[in-house]
Specification:
alpha+beta, Alpha-Beta Plaits, three-stranded antiparallel β-sheet, globular
Length: 67
């Protein structure tokens, strides 16, 4: 089991949470800063690495759109 930390903009947390649930991942909000939530996501690297990469790209796109 591995863990990845995501900084998710507050206004995008619902979409992020839907992705977590749709892919049977375990996630916990571990902190909050300004307009972002820090979310810890546990995953099996052999099975769910592609999903994690897609989630990373999703967050990067959101951040690019915000700038």
């Amino acid at each position: 089991m591995k863990t990845r930390i995501f900084n998710v903009p507050v206004d995008s947390i619902v979409g992020f949470a839907e992705s977590v649930g749709a892919n049977d991942l375990e996630a916990v909000i571990i902190g909050a800063k300004d307009d972002e939530l820090e979310v810890s996501v546990d995953y099996e690297p052999d099975i769910q690495s592609e999903v994690i990469l897609e989630m990373i790209e999703y967050i990067e796109e959101i951040n690019d759109d915000a700038n």
